[in-house]
Amino acid sequence: MSINSIILSTGSYLPTKILTNADLEKMVDTSDEWITQRSGIKQRHIAADNETTGDMAIAAAQNALKDSGLTPDDIDGVIVATTTPDRTFPSVAVKVQAELGIKTGLAFDVQAVCTGFVYALSVADNFIKLGQAKNILVIGAEKMSSLLDWTDRTTCVLFADGAGAVILQAKENNDVKENKLDGQGIHSTHLYANGKQRDMLQTSGGVSTTGERGVIEMQGREVFKYAVQYMADVVGEVLTHNNITPEDIDWLVPHQANIRIIESTAKKLNMDMDQVVATVDHHGNTSAASIPLALDEAVRSGKIKRGQMLLIEAMGGGLTWGAALVRF
Question: Which of 215, 270, 275, 293 is 20 to 30 Å from 87 by CA-CA measure?
Fold first, then answer.
């Protein structure tokens, strides 16, 4: 008998304020054409001044919980992927735990920027497979607008706010199948980082350096180059590790950073863009929130169905990158 981690339910939250490319044209030297050609983004959601990452995480978690058939008492832990916490400490996770009335258990944040949700998913999966938890709330939540220099047209047009969540649940696998990948759940996760490249995508400040939060600084061309390379590498690793071909993948669910990076990964898999969950045009880059936001939208729209195979992948500051193979 083995234990698999299945995605029991999904949930998401987006702030009500929408910032379009036309709006940005009035704020900074840019154009709708320039933004669209380089990123694929047409609009993004921006949190209110008094709306925190924790607030958004709670809203997304409530939606995931509502669709799960569980109560807060059933949740054994909360893991939040974020690079924009409400406070230096305590974590966003403990705020979610308290506000949802979740019982005492594990609760902590994971910081791997845009790859954060994949990291958090992997950590939760290991807790479950070791028998240390049965139901874990995994959230990606970001208020990236709080880290933007609104005069820097290379970054302020890209990033946005929001939150997405899933509930991972332990499922005993008593069936002996010829192909283990036929079973529901997370089949493998693959995590990487190269700290020598940390300056390519960073903030200009920090608690123990400048004492200020800083703003996002990005070497765009270099980040794009390595994103394409690392995504190709990790996608190839997932296929090899699981002894599958691209034809076995029903949906690619990528980090929503740039439509050109997404298209490059789809090309590597010989996948039609109709098999790719792409929300970057109306969500922008919400960092750790982008994958669970995209996943929830695809599930609720009926695109992603039970039993389908998902390839989830991301790259972010650190540089960090990773992927997960999941049968939904």
Answer: 293
Annotated active-site residue 114? The verdict is yes
Q: Is 156 a catalytic residue?
A: no
Find the domain containing 13 and state its range.
Answer: 2-173
Structure tokens at 315: 């790259």
pTM above 0.85, yes or no: yes
In one-letter notation, the amino acid at residue 297 is: E
Same domain, 82 and 162: yes
Residue 197 sits in the same domain as residue 229: yes
Under 8 Å CB-to-CB from 104, ≥6 apart: which residues? none
The reply to whether 169 and 204 lie within a common domain is no
Averaged pLDDT for residues 214-229: 96
Domain count, the chain: 2
Q: Has 285 been annotated as catalytic?
A: yes
Distance between CA atoms of residues 303 and 256, nearest Å: 17
Q: Which of 114, 135, 156, 187 is catalytic?
A: 114
Active-site position among 190, 255, 258, 283 = 255
Q: Are residues 54 and 99 in the same domain?
A: yes
pLDDT, tens only, 262-314: 999 999 899 999 999 999 999 999 999 999 999 999 999 999 999 999 999 99
Which one of 140, 173, 206 terminates a domain?
173
Q: Which amino acid is at 98?
A: A
pLDDT tens-place string over residues 73-125: 999 999 999 999 999 999 999 999 999 999 999 999 999 999 999 999 999 99
Closest-CA residue to 223 (of 171, 304, 158, 303)? 158
What b/e sequence results for 265-284 when a residue is b if at least 16 CB atoms lie within 10 Å of its CB, and e otherwise? bbebbebeeeebbbbbebbb
Same domain flag for 119 and 214: no
Q: For residue 16, what is the domain's CATH number?
A: 3.40.47.10
Residues 317 and 233 in one domain: yes
